[in-house]
Design a protein that fits this description.
alpha/beta; 3 domains; Immunoglobulin-like; single chain; 630 residues; TIM Barrel; 14 helices; globular; 29 strands; 24% helix
């Protein structure tokens, strides 16, 4: 049995390139410790925020809520806690009137001879919850033709109805959950060129009436459930979420529970119920679900969900697994793990394929700052603890990602006084790395520091400290985890351009100042049209010439329009071949495992399809790794 990470003894994974911290860095770390930034629990007089305490430690989760095998899943303690609200639009936005029209203009299009379409007589709308909103959209073309139009996204429960006279009517009855400022956008298409477009947003301000009983009580519904493929005789968990637009929590029921199955309300999320069962036959399994209103028990909605159950033989591959071939070459091959994959219906097959094929894993989202430290003094470690436990059970090395990034920051960091940002960064690095320093051997210390033009990105960190934030982060990272590999991770550095030029200048400056940098992470979110392999090879060489290791950290190859799986496989093959040809290339990681969960899912960019079948790209990578002449 794997003991939850926060209770376990240190688990040191071998690091072939252990470094010893320079005395000056050790002295710097001593200053951090004296400043109360050593990752200890609670707070000190000099800490800006409290460190992780007993209330932040994950607790064991009941097996009925996950598919895990080989390790014990932990969860955050207690019920879900509210996170600081993010207000996208404010009363000031509403009072300022209609937002400006946003134009999409085709390359080379002359806007002086063809003026853009627009809408007649639109304005922002104020309404009480429960009242019907009706807005007529009349598109206007200055040249006198009739533009087409479409909504960007309908609000929950709304419609956009054709009046068959060139106009359409937006109809919506907002309820309690819609209180606030809502945005609705419609795009008009120029009659002469439908790529010439004008998008107009209106704001709809929804307020609660003095008598909330005037708001109609509507039937609850089931949140969207996407199709999944699972393996026969595997445990399956299905999280079903009820939605009640009146703001109440619906009750979910399954009239015909699968044999041996369980159906329980989630211990943290009252609106979620979890079905767990083991399918024993192949085929399409359909399950009926009833959503019952918690106020009026007679008010119900019935929906069905389906999953595809395949035989175990459907998931086998020929030849040796990728990790076996890579390990012969002393190469790490890995993937970015979907957060909480063990809570997905297909979590068992996901974990099985990952363990079979990969020896290296990074968290796709669970280690980002808004996930780990959403509010001052509050920490959420369960998802990352679980990934580390899974990695240990599967004999994988863990790659930490990211420590410092300009995105996915909690609001409290974005809003912090600039004079405090450096100490917030110091406290966060120490708390995160101290927890995982014995389990994580590679870290993306700084993620995406460069803007497209090669300047340093204008992040909260750069605003507060200038370029020195990079040096300070690396110095502290080395002090906290002296044996770890420390990386800069960046995109658009695989080819020539201002970003690559700026990266090498940054490396040179850091090395001249003895800043502890061990390698560069290459993000490669390519399309099948990518052909700049000569430039990629040259940039690999430039990194190696600077005595740094190369990590392909985020590899996927999206299918461009009309592209084939063979073209996708060819790009994967070329990238892996270039890595094998470069002695300083130490790892290859795909950004995800299956197209089902890729952040570029619409482009099917990964080695396994949505049903976990190996694609030609997998066979191509396997072939390159098996080719002893490379």
């Amino acid at each position: 049995m794997i003991i939850p990470l926060h209770m376990s003894q240190s688990f040191l994974i071998d690091n072939p390139r252990a470094r010893v911290a320079l005395p000056s860095l050790a002295a710097l770390f001593a200053l951090f410790v004296l400043s109360g930034c050593d990752g200890s629990s609670g707070s000190s007089d000099s800490s800006l925020t409290a460190g992780p305490g007993a209330d932040d430690q994950p607790i064991a989760e009941a097996p009925a809520f996950n598919t895990a095998s080989g390790f014990v899943v932990v969860r955050e303690p207690g019920p879900r806690l509210p996170v600081e609200a993010t207000v996208e639009y404010t009363d000031a936005d509403f009072d300022a009137g209609l937002p400006a029209i946003v134009l999409q203009v085709p390359d080379g299009f002359d806007t002086t001879t063809n003026l853009p379409p627009n809408f007649d007589n639109l304005q922002n709308v104020s309404v009480m919850a429960g009242e019907l909103v009706e807005v007529v959209y009349r598109p206007v073309d200055p040249e006198g033709e009739l533009p087409g139009m479409f909504p960007e996204e309908l609000l929950q429960g709304s419609s956009f109805d054709d009046n068959f006279d060139g106009t359409k009517t937006f109809r919506w009855r907002p309820l309690q959950m819609d209180v606030g400022i809502n945005a609705f956008t419609v795009t008009a298409l120029d009659p002469a060129n439908d790529s010439y477009r004008a998008s107009q947003t209106i704001f709809i301000k929804v307020e609660l009436p003095d008598d909330p009983s005037t708001i109609p009580n509507v039937a609850p519904m089931l949140d969207e459930f996407r199709p999944h493929t699972v393996r026969v005789n595997d445990p399956v968990v299905i999280e079903l979420k009820g939605i009640d637009l009146n703001g109440d929590t619906p009750i979910l029921e399954i009239p015909d529970l699968p044999v041996g199955g369980s159906f329980n309300q989630h211990p943290r999320f009252a609106e979620i119920y979890v079905l767990k069962f083991v399918p024993t036959t192949t085929g399409t399994l359909t399950i009926d679900v009833v959503a019952r209103d918690s106020i009026d028990s007679a008010l119900t909605a019935e929906e069905s969900i389906s999953i595809s159950v395949l035989a175990a033989s459907a998931f086998t591959t020929t030849g040796q697994p990728l990790r076996a071939l890579a390990e012969v070459r002393d190469l790490r091959i890995g993937f970015a793990a979907l957060q909480s994959f063990y809570h997905r219906p297909d979590g068992a097959i996901y974990a099985d394929i990952a363990e079979r094929e990969f020896n290296f894993v990074t968290p796709e989202n669970s280690m980002k700052m808004d996930q780990i430290n959403p509010e001052p003094g509050r920490f959420q470690f369960a998802a990352t603890d679980n990934l580390v436990s899974f990695a240990q059970s599967a004999d994988m090395t863990v790659h930490g990602h990211p420590i410092i990034w300009y995105r996915q920051l909690p609001n409290w960091i974005e809003q912090a006084p600039l004079t405090q940002v450096e100490q917030h960064m110091s406290e966060y690095i120490s708390r995160l790395m101290s927890r995982y320093k014995d389990d994580v051997t590679v870290w993306d210390v700084i993620n995406e520091p460069l803007a497209d033009n090669g300047s340093l990105r204008d992040s909260i960190w750069h605003k507060a400290m200038g370029e020195s934030y990079i040096d300070k982060a690396f110095a502290q990272a080395r002090a906290v985890a002296p044996d770890a590999q420390l990386l800069i991770n960046e995109f658009d550095i695989s080819m020539e351009g201002p970003k690559a030029t700026a990266l090498f200048a940054l490396i040179d400056r850091m090395q001249a100042n003895d800043i502890p940098l061990d390698g560069i992470g290459f993000q490669m979110h390519f399309f099948t049209s990518f052909d700049q392999f000569t430039e990629l090879e040259a940039n690999f060489a430039k990194v190696a010439e600077r005595d740094l290791d190369i990590y392909i950290t985020e590899l996927d190859v999206s299918l461009a329009q009309g592209a084939t799986l063979a073209q996708q496989a060819s790009v994967y093959e070329r990238v892996v071949s270039l890595c094998l040809a470069q002695p300083r290339c130490k790892a290859i990681q795909t950004w995800g495992l299956t197209d089902q969960y890729s952040f570029r899912s619409i482009f099917d960019p990964l080695l396994f399809n949505r049903s976990y079948q190996a694609k030609p790209a997998y066979t191509a990578v396997q072939g390159v790794l098996a080719d002893t002449t490379q």
